[in-house]
Design a protein that fits this description.
Main location: membrane
Number of domains: 8
Number of strands: 73
CATH topology of the largest domain: Immunoglobulin-like
Shape: extended
Number of helices: 10
Distance between the termini: 114 Å
CATH class of the largest domain: Mainly Beta
Domain Ig-like: 41-146, 151-258, 277-381, 402-523, 536-650, 676-778, 806-922
Oligomer: single chain
Helix content: under 10%
CATH superfamily of the largest domain: Immunoglobulins
Organism: Astatotilapia calliptera (Eastern happy)
Strand content: over 45%
Keywords: Disulfide bond, Immunoglobulin domain, Membrane, Repeat, Signal, Transmembrane, Transmembrane helix
Structural class: mainly beta
Largest sheet: 8 strands, mixed
Subcellular location: Membrane
Length: 986
Amino acid sequence: MSDTSKFQDSDDFICVLSLLYSGEARVKTEAQAGPLYRVLGSPLYITCSVSGFRSENTDKHFEFRMTKPSNPDFEIQIISSHEDTFGYSSHLTRVRKNEIALKRLSPNSVRFEIKSLQKTDEGEYECTAVNLEGAYDGEYSAKTVVKVIEDSLSVSSSASTPLSLNEGEALTLTCLASSSTSQHTHLSVAWYLHKDGQEDAQPIISLNRDFTLSPGQGFERRYQAGLIRLDKWGEASYSLKMAEVEPSDQGRIYCQAQEWIQDPDGSWYIIIQKNAEEMTLTVKATGGNFTQSSLQEGQELMLSCNINTQDVEKRFFSVAWLKGSVELARIGPTGVLTVAPEYSVRQKNGELRAARTGNRNYRLILKPVRTEDQGEYICTVWPQERGQDDTFIEGEPKDSSPQRVSVSATVKMQQAVNVAEGGGLHLSCKVDGVQGQLSVTWQHKSTPTASFTDIISINEEGVTEIAEEFMSRKVKVMRPSTDNFTLALDEVTLSDSGVYQCAVSERKPNGNTHNQTQTTTVTVISIGKMCLYTLMGVSLISRKTRVIVGEKLELMCRVKGPHMPVTVTWSVQREAKTPDTILTLSPDGTISWSADQNHYQLRVESRKTEVMYYLLVIGTSHREGGSYQCNVSVLLKNVHKELKASNQLSVIVNNPGTASFIFSQFPQKIMKMLSPFLVSRLDVSPIPALTRTISTDITITCSIVKKTSESSLYSITWLHEENAGNKTIVSLDRNSIVTESQVDLRQRISMRRSKGPTFELIIRQARISDKGLYTCKVGEWLQDPRGEWYLLSTVSKSTVLTITEPGEYIYFSLLYYFTYKKEQQLTAKEGEEVKLNCSITSGASGSSVFYRVIWHYAAHSSSLKKASLVELDHTGLVSYPENKDIRGLQERLRLSRPTQKSFYLSIQKAHEEDSGTYWCQVDQYQLDNEAHWQLKASDSGGAIKVSVKVTGMITVLEVFCWNVNVLNVVAYVCMDVFLLLFPDFS
């Protein structure tokens, strides 16, 4: 299909082309589209541009006027770029004070500015381009409507008094931010830290207008580890939670709220910004003293282990977490996680996680925490030294200071209950995390301002006590399970409406008492209104049906009509499959979950003529895409009457940065054309081809040169092409934990991460079979607001590794050259040490060359012609061949090897019968590609004739010989003298 035909189906492009090619150019003036809603006291900016004049590079002049809603026919001149007295007196004073200005942006455009809006500035503004070039056809003015609205943004903080914490303690601050404007606006909230001595404050974490979380610079690591959070509660509460404060967190902390509005051109604009009062935080550094944490069941327990030592990035450690004497989990020196058998199920279910979050930092997380998790925890660290064979040697362990964890019960109740007049009221109070004995009291108040009065209570022994006011009523408390208390009140009346409270008192085994309460609202409906259920209707709506991964999705099920006890069921249909039930909300407030409740929140809002059931999807993923529906049934006299199901609502989930998100207002065809060009910025550096020698260590480097976000994590897989297919060598997940590796390669092949980040594949003692194509596959992971990681994109780079064998030029015709290739004479005294040297002066060398040396011996005075004295094989093993004739000599031999090519044989306390001929034999060995030893060459050194003389004989001879001072005849004179003294030897 040609480029032209691609656009023929799009009306949008036909309109654009007809405008561009309709004929001669016309003057056109354009101003920012309205209406523009701006806050009283805030600045106003309106851009205005003109096109179509003959001279594009000459400054054009502009004039601004306005009309007010009260008198739309009367124009008020404000300001002109070419006439200082253009404005009327009502605005001229503000122009001269520079409160109203006209700033030139280019020769053809200007920006109209009002520094601080007044209520009287509301109206329709007209920008006019002054024609100084003659008659031109076109539009010389453009209008924009400006609406001035009241400032309704309110920002306040929960704490403004100074706070002092110890290092490692938790900090929680709450910011209340809300706006009551009638316009559709979005709020963004950010927490800032202003350190002493710094000019600007730095953001800690922010919740953007599109409900995405962004950590500030310097806080990314703790955000990724879950140590810094920003949670939104209800409509206006934003909580900053820092699990472990650091000394660098000291300073003034405050929250900032910005109110955004979307202008008609689709751009977002900050109409007002406010800061809450500052809170001064002081953090005291600690030395790891005993700490204690108090949690409620279901919360998150995070145990941090920090290693304080030098050169930690160059060393290896094993880290384990223990509760008492029981080990929970351990991270080995290579990052492999092992979990104790009793915790393996919790790890599989995602309740236990452990990871290395930095060179010094390790984290263990238990979520949801259980009551059996309470106790005393420590972390133990073992330094690990890598041996020559790549095995690790464990050093002395070091224990951290203990941390005591206590887990308390939590109280839960249904949010709101509707009950028919005369029917029965059943309220459930569920207590999670029971450790000790419980007592429960049910209370009631008819109005929010009234005080609670007791209804009935049950103490620790199970004895119930009814309040005097309810003695005549049918009331009782039941305990269907150890953690569930139910209030049953029959024949309710309209006066029973109001707030009900469940007050729980827990006496722990240590004698301490823990009190908690929970409330719910009960509405008693008059029987006379029951017939109105036929008028009830159900509809499903949402403010947006296109969301990106990680964004919140809010669905609203509107039940119109009288308030009745209803059962609401939420479901979603994915593709062509049958609908999946998400949850069912019963009339008594009980929620039956069919999906993972960690991904959803439910909220009920009761209005005069309808009830809104909100389903909030937290941190959407692609799985949340599909068609949603809510079904409602009314409970009438213990009988469920089904209403007509709501409409289906289709939800589409896209990755960040896709065309469908950025151009959500564009036609479908344009979105389809643009989407392929908006991709991840991840890129990996090219890997050069490598040529290396067999039996050497090889490092292949894979470096990330571009990334989408500073908060990105990476998973790495190294592949090796084998028989036209790829084989995975080793894989690391985004937490740098090994998830896959070849068992037969673990001792030789490993992966290492360094700064950049850079990932190195290390091959030790390379073999011929290691050659081939290697591929580094990098996956980039981003984190959504709920803390879940998703794979954004993958990039692969490959290289070719060539393995060669060293010294191939000597494999077939190798000769060794020894220092003494010719025959040597050596004379020694009896009882002395005799040293024989066998040195190789040329030949192959290197870490892949190995030698075997054998010393041979032939006696002068016996038939022993070639006896093997001692052997040092190519693996370093020394052996003495069995021979009874030379056993005494072998016991006095010492073999040494000061260098790779030098071999010494020492004879301790030489005997006369040790005389004879000695020589060495050297064999060269190398490993082939199958790891088998191959003999490549062999050679022998020259003979060394050794004479060992008794002490008396050698002394006379030596004295006489040394007195002869003729260099060339020394040997002959000595021999003649010897024959004269001992004629029998002739």
